[in-house]
C-alpha cells in the first residue's frame, strides 16, 4: 500500500493546510471574551498603543495603569506590531490580530511537515502535520491574539533550516536557522527549550556523517551565539522597562520555581491535577494523550521501517530518530521549573505541541502499518481516517467551552459589554475604573477605548483579587487614590455586584456618596465619579 494511492503528497499537504485554516478561522470575529481573554486583550492593547500613540516597537505599552506612559517588560512584539501595521490598511478589528496568529500557525504546520520529512520520512511527515492541524490546543492558540503561534512557527522553521544545514553543509541554511531562531526566541523566550533537541540533532546527524569535528562545531556555536546575542540584549532591555516605568510589570514573572520554591510545588502536588485538567480539557484531549503515551513507548522510525512503498525519496538524509523524544524531555524540564506559570497560563504549553503531533503521528503510522501487514487491504487508510475523525471530533467538542466558557469567571462577555457602554458614555480623555468578570483582566478597559485602571489597581504591594475579599478601608483608600489621579467612571460587572454589596457595605456606602449611578443593566453598573466640589 502507498500513501500516495489516494492522492499525491502535495495535494495531501494542501488539504491538511486548508482544513487547518478552516478550523482556526472558527470564531475569528469573536470579541476577546473566550477562555484566554485576559492575555489577548493585554496583547491587543499593545497593538492599539502602537497604532494610536507610539510606533516604537521597543516600548510596548498597556492601558490599564492610568494616563501616564505604562511601558511593560514584554517579549519582542512581532505579532502586535504586524497587527498594528495592518490596522493602517484595514482598520482596527479583533480579527486582524487573530489573522496574524493564524498565518503563523499555518506556516508552523508546513514547517513541521518539512522538519519531520527530514528527520524521519515523508509519510510520517504527512500524518504528523495532519495531527498538528487537528490538535485542539494548537487550533485554539493559533487563532488567539498571542505571540505563541509566531514563536512556535519561527522556532520550528529555524529547526528545519538547521537540519537542512546539518544534512547538506550549505551555510545559507545555517545563517537562516540562526536569524529565524533569534526572531522566534525574541518573540517569546520559551522557544529556547528547543535548543535541547537541536543539540541532539546536531550530534546525531553530524556523527552519522562522520563530520563531528571541532571546526564544524565552532561554526554552529558561532551561529548559536549570534542568535542569542539579540535575545539577551532585548530581554535585558525589557527588564529595564519593567523596573523603570509603572506598573513595574515583567511579563511571566512570579510563578517560577525560583519565585515560590520547591516546597510550595510539592505541597500543591506539583500542580499535576491542574496539568491533567488542561491537557484533558483542551490542549490534547484523551485521544491525543493516549496516542502520545503509546508513541513515547515505541521505537522511533528508522530507515525503511514501516515503509508503505518501496521508494522513499528521503532515505538519503541522515536521520535523527529520537529528536521528538528529546523535545518532550525539554518540555518536562520546562514544566519542572515553571509548573505554576504553565498551568495558570496554559497556552505556554504550545511549544510542546509540535513534538506531541509528531509522536502521536508515529503511533498512528505504526498501528496502520501493522494493520496493513496483517490485512493487505485499505483497512489501514480507514483506520487513519477514523483516528483523525476522533481526534478532530473530540477536540471540537471540547473547544466549544473554550470559545464560550460556562464558568462565569472565564466568560468575559459582561466585561466586553461594560467596555462598549463605557466607550459610549465617556469622552476620549476620560479615565475609567473597572471590576471585570475575572478580577484584574483588562477586557472592559480595552473595549472602552479609554485608559484607566482595573480595581483594585495593579500597583506594587496591592494584592489582586481572585475573589472580592478586600477590606472596606483598603478598598476606600485605593478608590480615593484613583479619584485623586483623575478617574472619571467606575464600572462593575453584574457577576460581582451582589458579592460586593454583601461583603463591602462601607465601601458601597462610600461609593454612593462619591459617585452617581448613570447606567444599570442586567449585566453591569456604571457610576460617574464626582469631583470633590460636587459631593
Strand order in the sheet with the most strands: 2-1-3-5-4
Structural class: mainly alpha
Mean pLDDT: 93
Helix content: 55-70%
Give the N-to-C terminal Cα separation. 83 Å
Low-pLDDT runs: 304-313
The portion of residues forming beta strands comes to: under 5%
DSSP, total strands: 5
Computed Rg:
25 Å
The DSSP helix count reads 21
Strand and helix map with partners:
Elements: H1 9-24, H2 37-52, H3 78-90, H4 94-119, H5 122-134, H6 136-142, H7 148-168, H8 171-187, H9 195-208, H10 214-244, H11 257-267, H12 272-283, H13 286-297, H14 323-344, H15 353-375, H16 379-403, H17 413-425, E1 431-435, H18 443-448, E2 451-454, H19 472-484, E3 489-493, H20 497-503, H21 505-514, E4 515-520, E5 524-529
Parallel strand pairs: 1-2, 1-3
Antiparallel strand pairs: 3-5, 4-5
Helix pairs in contact: 1-4, 1-5, 2-3, 3-4, 4-5, 4-6, 4-7, 5-15, 7-8, 7-9, 8-10, 9-14, 13-15, 14-15, 15-16, 19-21
Protein described:
The chain is mainly α and 535 residues long. 61% of the residues lie in helices and 5% in strands. The protein has helices at 9-24, 37-52, 78-90, 94-119, 122-134, 136-142, 148-168, 171-187, 195-208, 214-244, 257-267, 272-283, 286-297, 323-344, 353-375, 379-403, 413-425, 443-448, 472-484, 497-503, 505-514; strands at 431-435, 451-454, 489-493, 515-520, 524-529. It has a five-stranded mixed sheet. Helix 1 runs parallel beside helix 5 and helix 8 (171-187) runs parallel beside helix 10. The model is unreliable at 304-313 (pLDDT under 50).
